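Researcher: Here's a chain I'd like modeled. Treat it as a single chain, no partners, no ligands.
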Amino acid sequence: MSGGLGRNDPCWCGSGRKYKKCHAPIEEQMAIYHSKGCAVPHLGLLKTQQQIQGIRDCSKLNIALLDYIGDYVIDGVTTEELDRLIYEKTKELGGVPATLHYHGYPKSVCISIDNVVCHGIPSDRVILRDGDIANIDVSTIYNGFFSDSSRMFCVGDVSSEKQRLVNVAKECMELGIEQIKPWGLLGNVGQAVNDHAKKNGYSVVREIGGHGIGLQFHEDPWVSYVSKQGTGMLLVPGLVFTVEPMINMGKAEISINESDNWTVYTVDGKPSAQWEKTVLVTETGYEILTY
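Model: Modeled as a single isolated chain. Structure tokens:
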């Protein structure tokens, strides 16, 4: 991306600064890490200032949708009704549900209840009941940019065991995000998540992780939550990805519903919880875009 640029030319990222004062030092640093055998992102993954603003704007819409739907997550509502509300509100705000028809996914949102780990498909046959915990995962396209986040919702009076799982899952996500810093390594995020989950007696789903996002729904890097500190991709300013660990009350093993090829369950039938945010690596730390 920087091929042919002189050091005094405007930087390719659109910041308005000279290349030598903007991405040249970053690229030189990346080259040093690469020479030491570190996995570095390709420049196309580093978002420009214009792209970052586009993702920010999309993220605001994404969060507005989660704020909006919370009032409707009550005992007796069907997940089909929640999907309809998300679809209509997304269109009203000028966005497009990113999940709708993505690789054949039939709905505008994923709603995963109790022992459903993720990718729960809304249906008029699935009804939220008092005591359920539900993850609502909203993914949005706005002006050609993508954002993604999810929250846990507790329906009515949930058991103390489920509430604790929901709380710890959020803590796992937050501790993972705290590990994000420029020139750190992605494996540090997973180590922090896994350590906290295990300390609390829970397990972490291995097969499904976070992902880069912004210009496409799913980009590199893939984010593991059972990774080891000091491993993984170099965290370079401009990299955008999700932090979304799935924490199981019981064992880590999962299975996929063979009839729809989407819905993921815990094998032991125990509950699972997940929170998700989209995060930008900055020059000084990180910025949570779907705050």
